[in-house]
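Notebook B, p. 112. Complex prediction, attempt 2.
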Amino acid sequence: MKKLVFFLCAAGLLAAQDAVPPPVTARSRALDLAGAFANDGYKIRDGFWSGTLEAGKPQFLQVNLFSGNEYWFSAAALPPEAKLSVTLFDESGLPVATEIFQDGASAAAGFIPDTSGKYFVRIALVAGDKAEFCLVYSYK
Amino acid sequence: MRCALLAAGLAVCPAAWIPASEAMTKAQIQSAAVSDVITIPSPGEFFAALDDCGQPNWKQMFQPKTAASTASREQMALMLGVLVADGYLAVEAQDGQGVKNTGKEIINLAKKLGLARENDNDSQRLLRRGNSIFDFAENNDWSTLREELEATQNEVKLLMVEQKDKDLVILVTVGAWIRGTQVAAEFISKNYSPGLAGILRQPAIVEYLLSVLDSLPEKLREGPLIADLRKKLVAVLALVQTKDRAPLAPEAVQELAATMLSLVNTISSGEKVP
């Protein structure tokens, strides 16, 4: 039922828009993915992190998370042939267990911290040589 | 967590909880990007964590601040941040009139900073945000209001950069963080538990804010308001930098609450810095 409602809403929104669709960017794709979590009560942060990724050169972002909250880090890349991964590390750089979603040029990691504090998000190219990327996050 | 993806017709990886395989190197830790708009949590995020762990009475806690009459642009920028945090508080309290009043204060202060001029196209963006806040509050759309408040804050920062006031941008972030921390610390000092006190352990944020304050132009950095702010943040860093990621002790929470309250009062009342 939820799926049906989602597609009906999406169809309604598309019909309501004017003829020229907005350009597809890594950010718009990342926001599309994050929008899926909004259906489950996650609020999307207005800020984003973007740049260029090269094969074998992952990038890292420092974030500060609160215990008690749940997080999803959603990323997307252009060109669409690129494949991304999103992973998380604690403040000493050790990997933490996350729930993952991966669909070609879009990827997300879900995380519920036990401890408040500094964490790192790693975004890496799994397939492709170079890609523009954008990462957004949502919380509840 | 999976419900969200399933609702959107997306498939979750079958092996749900997967740790990344390799640890980060020291060089990777040191070179990790830090971004004002994403590394620093919004007050809404802070309050969501507090809500989950402590069930605060938000209506009682929503005691909005009003901006003092001042010619100091840095004080106004800090106050803008305080007001944004107050907006989130009003949303948590589900106080529609409170949200509208705070939104109006934000726009008024932005006008004083020259960020919301009636006849300027760029400024119209901010004025439209102000109207949206009013409309969403009218409709009790609390979830959208949280996003709109952050978007308004980022719009203010963007306009500051556009009008070559980029040094004020970080002060908006600092003001919002101070007010959020003051409200949380005050609540936790009255309802102490180690779980709640863990929320206040944010040394990385304080270190980041101090580093950005240090990079401000000397004239701004050495003015009495910013110098006092910096001094107090150094003291705050010592309080929140606990060993082995332990939560803050009750005494540390009380001291943090008192320090933050004194900062909020200085920013909002225009009290002379001693």
